[in-house]
Amino acid sequence: MLAFMTNSSYIVDGFGSDKGVKLMRFQGAILREQGQTFAIVVVKKHVLDNRITVGEAISSFMPAFPGLPVVLMAQDSSGRPTYYGRQDIARF
């Protein structure tokens, strides 16, 4: 298994917002599991609970991981993880 952890900042275009460029700080990793290489990013649970924000979140992290599918991970109050992304990856 390949793993690359990051707690980094990434500058992304504001995608049409009048604020231009914004700084995004996040925790993520690049993993290789069962022949699939993908990115996993930690988000707050409320992001996964809303279909609109979950899509926006995946799109916002894609420039940080060019060419890789992005999976989001959130933990509930007991620390149990929930994953969201491509089904073949999120079910690992």
Description:
The protein is α+β, with helices and mostly antiparallel strands and 92 residues long. 21% of the residues lie in helices and 46% in strands. The protein is globular and about 30 Å long. Mean pLDDT is 80; it is low at 1-5 and 8-18.
SSE arrangement, N to C: EEEHHEEH
End-to-end distance, in Å?
Answer: 13 Å
Side-by-side strand order of the widest sheet: 1-2-3-4-5
Q: Poorly predicted ranges (pLDDT <50, ≥5 residues)?
A: 1-5, 8-18
User: What number is the mean pLDDT?
Assistant: 80
Radius of gyration (Å): 13 Å
Share in β-strands: over 45%
Give the overall form. Answer: globular
Number of helices: 3
How much helix is in the residues? 10-25%
The chain-level structural class is alpha+beta
Query: Biggest sheet: strands, sense, closure?
Result: 5 strands, mixed
Instruction: Report the strand count.
Output: 5
Q: Which short descriptors sum up this protein?
A:
about 90 residues; 5 strands; alpha+beta; disordered N terminus; 5-stranded mixed sheet; 3 helices
In short, what is this structure?
With 92 residues, the chain is α+β, with helices and mostly antiparallel strands.
Layout of secondary structure:
Blueprint lengths: L1 E12 L7 E13 L2 E7 L2 H4 L2 H11 L8 E6 L5 E4 L2 H4 L2
Parallel strand pairs: 3-4
Antiparallel strand pairs: 1-2, 2-3, 4-5
